[in-house]
Task: structure prediction
Amino acid sequence: MYETDIALSRDAFDPREVARAGDLWRAFQDLAVFGSSEAGWPPPRYVAEGVSFIVRAMTVVHHRATSHGEALRGSTWPSGFKRGIFFRRECRIRGEDGAPVASATQDWVHVSAELKLVRASDALVEAFPIESRERPIELPAREAVEGAPTHGFAFEVWHGWMDPLGHVNHPRYVDWADEGLARAVADAGLDPQGLRAHAESARYKAGTVAGDRVHVATRLVGRAADGAAVVEHAMTVDDRPVCRVTTHRSHPDADLVERLSV
Result:
């Protein structure tokens, strides 16, 4: 297991002084990179060997909000590596008191420089011994809600969003999902800044690159056991599925399930 201090940047916080979900996803990504570097595999080594890991799915549960300047501690460990291709990593962020702030399970795939699935070298596999510490993170159970309307918006991917692999980095899809929900909430007469993150997951089908026109279709699909609205966000480029994000969100001023059902 690798541990390190975490400091969220000032622009990670919304007008309520609460860290955005997407920025916690970026913190988890940094934590994974730090853990890999500590194991002898920093980013330059992947580049030199013409391989990399890309995220195919990720699930996060938020235990409580965090504010700017709060001392945070992150930990991460490998929890699965199948056939040298499918890699699972657990990540946790805790507060100064040791209580959990956010927890994540990341599912990665090992790919070549051409982004094709390829088995990792023996040296890479041996660098990440599997540890069994905590159960993988899963979304809370939900009760289905049928018939809710779909809200959509579209945009063009910026050149400035390209990551080291030349495509949109995986946390940004959570930003897009939250923007889709924010617009639906605003249309329902609520302040989007009141939205509270409980959990989210993403499953990636294909990458997006600069110039792509992404359409985000947002629709209420359920109610979680804690009362949060469960909202799905289907993201497509030219009708081609690229990602599906599921968010669990609540609002202090209204029942989101009721507001998004009509």
Q: What stands out?
A: The mean pLDDT is 97. The radius of gyration is 18 Å. The chain has two domains: 2-127, 142-260. The first strand starts at residue 2 and ends at 6.
